[in-house]
Amino acid sequence: MGADLRSVTVLVPGKLHEQSVKRIAETFRLVCIDTIDAGLLTDEMKATVRGVAASPAIAGGMVDPAFMAALPKLEIVANFGVGYDGVDARHAGAHGIMVTNTPDVLTEEVADTALGLLIATVRELPKAEAWLRAGNWAAKGNYRLSPLSLRGRRVGIFGMGRIGMAIARRLEAFGLPVAYHNRRPVEGVSYPFHATLKELAEAVDTLISVAPGTPQTARAVDAEILESLGPDGVFVNIGRGSTVDEAALAAALADGTIAAAGLDVFADEPNVPQALLDAPNTVLLPHIGSASEHTRRAMADLVVDNLVSWFAQRTALTPVPETADVKAPA
Ligand code: 8YV
Q1: Measuring CA to CA, how many Å separate 304 from each of 19, 178, 329?
Q2: Strands 178-181 and 155-158
Q3: Is 83 in the pocket of ligand 1 (CB under 6 A)?
Q4: Residue 60: which pLDDT band, with cuts at 50, 70 and 90?
């Protein structure tokens, strides 16, 4: 079996976690290009590549229909990350190409980060620390009482998947009521479901977005949703920046339509809009939701485990729904 896998060519386009690259090099025949760009593929790659392992968010580019079409022997795209908006999975599924992602292994880490970001935002932890470091504690006295508190908040979760559930469990332990909006009600979940994001935003004052980046969720958090949260409103985004109208968010923060925002993701990473950088009531993180050594190594392993399972057993471990029915070629 080992010898068989050595003859399988796997392409890594652009940057990928070093643990994935190392294991792919040890197991398969590894070929690399600088970014996800069909123009960089050699004729030899086009004739031999059967698997792609990619992290579009950091590699640059998209595994789009043109990229897949340039690789006629392609059987599987192993995506680094639970979100796979950098891969056209619908197109892949329609063309018999398997797409896998990295669920479960990052769930608790991202939920931890979400709660940390929520508390940092509401209780102004970064500003309080800056106060201490600037010598203000000794020179001027205590940092101000935070105008906002978690106490008494009602939290809405936009996107009740695995990570949304893990966040909800934590919020319950914090004594906060949770409601949610999702494409459809989630079976076995007793938190109140709201059929629209607007209804959810009207029912809560704190909105946490864990929604994936899809055409349906694009700019779903807009001026109207933010206004519904009200002047004490807090918005936290740990999902995808594309789900937010960032100009509307910056305006809502500047004019007091909502009180504060904690953002780990942005529409055009790594570029952060100046208006969000300028807003005084934001905590901004550089997309670190899953970014611990521990969790990123687990994600890197799952990328390669999917490739090994596909080429050795002819089944994928964690296929995305759009390609769940794709079978390995005989
Ligand atoms: C990664 C993520 O930062 O899993 C996801 O969807 O957004 C993160 O865990 C991303 O995959 C880029 O490496």
Answers
A1: 9, 36, 19
A2: parallel
A3: yes
A4: confident
Report yes or no on whether pTM surpasses 0.85. yes
Amino acid code (one letter) for 76? I
What's the first-to-final CA gap in the chain, in angstroms?
16
Q: Please check whether residue 232 is in contact with residue 259, taking contact to mean a CB–CB distance below 8 angstroms.
A: yes
The answer to whether 294 is a known catalytic residue is no
198-209 tens-digit pLDDT: 999 999 999 999
* Cα 44 to middle of ligand 1, angstroms: 30
CA distances from residue 309 to 5, 24, 52, 75, 313 in whole angstroms, order as listed: 10, 13, 14, 13, 5
Q: How many Å is the maximal CA-CA distance in the chain?
A: 74
| Atom nearest to 295 CA in ligand 1 | 9
Q: Quote the CA–CA distance of 18 and 190 in Å, as a whole number.
A: 41
Asked if residue 71 has its Cβ within 6 Å of ligand 1, the reply is no
